[in-house]
Amino acid sequence: MSERIASAELRAKLMSADEAAQFVNNGDLVGMSGFTGAAYPKALPTAIANKAKEAHAKGDAFTIDMLTGASTAPDCDGVLAEAEAVNYRMPYQSDPIMRKAINAGSMKYQDIHLSHSGLQVEQGFFGEMDVAIVEVTRITEEGHLIPSSGVGNNLEYLAAAKKIIIEVNEWQALELEGMADIWSVPHLPNRTPIPINNVGDRIGNPYIQIDTNKVVAVVETNAPDRNAPFKPFDDVSAKIAGNFLDFLEGEVAAGRLTYDGYIMQSGVGNVPNAVMAGLLDSKFENIQAYTEVVQDGMLDLIDAGKMTVASATSFALSPEYADKMNREAATYRKSLVLRPLQISNSPEVIRRMGLIASNGMIEADIYGNINSTHVNGTRVMNGIGGSGDFTRNAFISSFISPSVAKDGAISAVVPFASHIDHTEHDAMVVITEYGFADLRGLAPRDRVAKMVSVAHPDYRALLEEYYDRALKSTTSFQQTPHDLKTAFNFHLNMIEKGSMKG
Amino acid sequence: MSERIASAELRAKLMSADEAAQFVNNGDLVGMSGFTGAAYPKALPTAIANKAKEAHAKGDAFTIDMLTGASTAPDCDGVLAEAEAVNYRMPYQSDPIMRKAINAGSMKYQDIHLSHSGLQVEQGFFGEMDVAIVEVTRITEEGHLIPSSGVGNNLEYLAAAKKIIIEVNEWQALELEGMADIWSVPHLPNRTPIPINNVGDRIGNPYIQIDTNKVVAVVETNAPDRNAPFKPFDDVSAKIAGNFLDFLEGEVAAGRLTYDGYIMQSGVGNVPNAVMAGLLDSKFENIQAYTEVVQDGMLDLIDAGKMTVASATSFALSPEYADKMNREAATYRKSLVLRPLQISNSPEVIRRMGLIASNGMIEADIYGNINSTHVNGTRVMNGIGGSGDFTRNAFISSFISPSVAKDGAISAVVPFASHIDHTEHDAMVVITEYGFADLRGLAPRDRVAKMVSVAHPDYRALLEEYYDRALKSTTSFQQTPHDLKTAFNFHLNMIEKGSMKG
């Protein structure tokens, strides 16, 4: 397989993952590729985890500070967390073992807007990076890197790191070459506009240029990306998708959107995929996506001729669709552009595109503040990801969620959000299976009835009771009525009695 | 004075403010100029207020929905609120009478990011605008408008409105002409990059072009902008300014900033002016400001040769400095650029500039969530203004505040912010008279000690007690430890006992 390493200089650095792990030391700041289960290094994490375990067995300290594009997979975040090999982690994760370590307080996790993560490394907030470990599809004769199934923060990490380890993954289709569009925003103080005017504009090269002198190891792998399959759509997801389409139709009726002018941004998950399935049968045509990840539903839309182009930084495909991608990459690359995270999630380009953002949430309060990250205000689930990048700069920003979780024990609409990731200034529309709450143009008090209308019927009276109490508790000072004594009663009920209903 | 109205077509529409008020009707959506006490219409608000009072005396309904650039003054927001003439208000206000009406629930107020406010009108979220009322310095022969002391959302309102009323204010110096740089971001779906690469770049015209057919009235005025004088610096402000400079020096020492590379954004107020006074005696040279408003301290920096250029959308000057500006506008216009709010506060340009943002706050919590707007979570003070536009896109974002207010009864550091306008993902540095808390690169638990260190000594033990309780209350789930039962005890103490200390 070494035909994938066309550079003689770099072919000379071929070694095993265990040998390459010698270049990763205790206390190192390590930047890795990887974004929503795609394009993460497949071999080095296990090798590093083994090195950590050996050190720990001898009573020696061994941890790294680990930076990625976003979440990875069990054979990356999982093995490293299990080996207690990570001291600090940013900007996003979704691994069960790692999440447990984070919430137990044994691992430090900083939840950073994705568009800021590589930028903060570039700006020097993390000091020097010791090692970058990046998966690629192929190395060219000149030593350029052809990205695999995602780009993420690879440019920033490869530029910042003192040492580079490259994993060449044979499982990734060679036909991915040409999908990536690599353009680097000039560094301060010479930043210039990002010259993207349309979703599909290509402005750079299909490869990443590096300082090959920094490469200390090249490792061959042959292992699949690991993405979870999506669940079949249930009735609730279908209803939410229907309400989302009703909302879009309303925008068309109001003259703010046309049937061939919809630019989509979509968070990851079952509900977004249900929304995309709904679009297949809608009147919307020539849909475009300026988003973070390419999902199954987008490939279906492209196959059906409903979507013309999708721009993202990575794939987030089910195993079935990942295989399909590997078979048909030569076709899909005509309709897909993979960009560096700083560009896929750029506030500048997002605002320019005029997209409609839709992201999931844990809960929203009666005024439209959104909690995307923490259960009961304390336990982090995954992280904010790019939801803030898109919400803050979208033409219209929406949040979608089933109205209840855990068989009705948890309401997605609460009196006071127990953690706030998106403020009342940012969220415009909240959508559940009961409809959509359009908060645009509304003062806080006028938002309450809208938010209650999308809550589960079991919780509506409880929310109204809270609002009545809030109105009475602070009679003379109430742009935003609250009764701070009972603001978290929903959450305290959940903690103490197992249900927000009490 | 009609030489200020060079267009014969528009001179023919000269009338009194009372006559012009005929064009403003009950229920109208009215867009006005005005930004931090500058450039607001001086005559029409009183005429509209009188019309409202007359209607109310007859038992008739009369209110308008009122949109501006930001805050205005007693003879605009004040008289209209006093006459109960406003139904809905956005995006920002700071008038005591209006604030009272808002918090009493008799007026609706939507607190919108300033960079979104004109955009949302342009995007059609408010439907058709009935009237735009805009103050200018002069009308040219072609009917172009020369902005007075601010630009704000004038472009969006003049474009959206069916009718236009122009106030020509003789008090504003004719030499302001040339200070404004008017460039309109093309509307969706044709938005393009904003071609500003440097703070002082001029990309447009010194005038606003309008459809003169929409002009229904031109009114002459001669009245000053109304800005409050700043208080003399006190000891606390001086200490905060010193800590801010220490923070800047630390960035220089870390190699992230140079003495001639500081680009400032600064919120309005006494503390920011103290910071600017501190910069006069600092090692920083060739300072630039890409900010929202031009303040006294910036003129001092320009006079002293320490600041080369400031870009903003408006003035926020004390009466003394406003007079100075009127006398010396011909000189200052070489160093000042006034831009439309969509550009002064553009996420795109802000991120490109790499500026250091510093804004005031009401309170921060132990994890770095910031409350900029609501006392005790319910009573709105002013609004978020542009603080989110800058915080979210700055190179470094800081918040500055005295550690206590009301003689120590209110702490600026609390366990849980009672309203959240900027999240833990956005705030990087919090500065009080006790030092600066640098939260960059830190997981939530590691932020607590930093935040406690900048709290007033009287509150440190109380904050530590809360954190200990939080650690114990949710032992197994605590990325962000909280004890939701007592999270708002500081605020409840304030409400019930008059002091957060209890």
UniProtKB/TrEMBL annotation, chains A, B:
One of its GO terms (biological process) is acetyl-CoA metabolic process. Residues 8-220 form the Acetyl-CoA hydrolase/transferase N-terminal domain. Its EC number is 2.8.3.-. It is an enzyme of class 2 (transferase). Pfam families: AcetylCoA_hyd_C, AcetylCoA_hydro. The keyword Transferase applies. Keywords: Transferase. CoA binds at residues 267-271, 362, 382, 386, 406. Coiled coil: none annotated. GO terms for molecular function: acetate CoA-transferase activity; acetyl-CoA hydrolase activity. It comes from the Bacteria. Residues 333-466 form the Acetyl-CoA hydrolase/transferase C-terminal domain. The active site is at residue 292. NCBIfam families: YgfH_subfam (TIGR03458). Belongs to the acetyl-CoA hydrolase/transferase family. This is Succinyl-CoA:coenzyme A transferase. It comes from Corynebacterium occultum.
